[in-house]
Amino acid sequence: MDRNVNILDKIGALIPGYKGYAERDGRRNCDKQLRSILSLKLFEGEKILVSRINEAITNSNKPLMRKIELCRKSINTTQSKINYAPYGKSGLFSDQQIKEDELMKIYHFDLDMAEVVGEIENIILEHDVEIIMKKLSELDNVLSSRNQFIREHK
Asked: CA dihedral defined by 143, 17, 76, 84, rounded to 10 degrees?
């Protein structure tokens, strides 16, 4: 049981001023809020990349500009996927309800996504486009697994 509390504490700490992960119903409603925060972090990273694109243009470095633009587009796409991912809750009158252990699996996915987004934030500051692209692929895989899991259990 310690592991579950640890995950819930970690996820709850990612959402400023939110303590909803402490109760099951609050955890269900917290999902969108967490993904909004992750999306915002990616948006901020995208803004940094836009400034780097402008620097590359100023320096007439077209190959670097193209590389960074490809990375920026990938961040933008991933950000949209996170924003519009299915919720980790079931409808009030749904025939299938997501069970507690299934919610815990979703929280593991959420925590994994948050960790990868944090890594991407740090890598963006280090200017390494190739590693950013690898991490975005990793994030996309976690998000896809999460979404597939939710679809199967709704």
From this structure: 50
Token digits of residue 3: 């592991």
Residues 154, 20, 116, 149: what is their CA dihedral angle, to the nearest 10 degrees? Answer: -10
Identity at 67, one-letter amino acid code:
K
Burial class (CB in 10 A: 0-12, 13-18, 19+), 91: exposed
What's the chain's Rg over C-alpha atoms? 17
- 82 close to 38: Cβ distance less than 8 angstroms: yes
Cβ-contact 96, 154 below 8 angstroms: yes
Give 99-140 as a DSSP string.
-HHHHHHHHHHHHHHHHHHHHHHHHHHHT-HHHHHHHHHHHH
pLDDT digits (tens, 9 = 90+) for 40-98: 999 999 999 999 999 999 999 999 999 999 999 999 999 999 988 876 555 433 445 56
Residue among 110, 93, 88, 86 at smallest CA distance from 24: 88
pLDDT per position as a tens digit, 97-124: 567 777 778 888 888 899 999 999 989 9
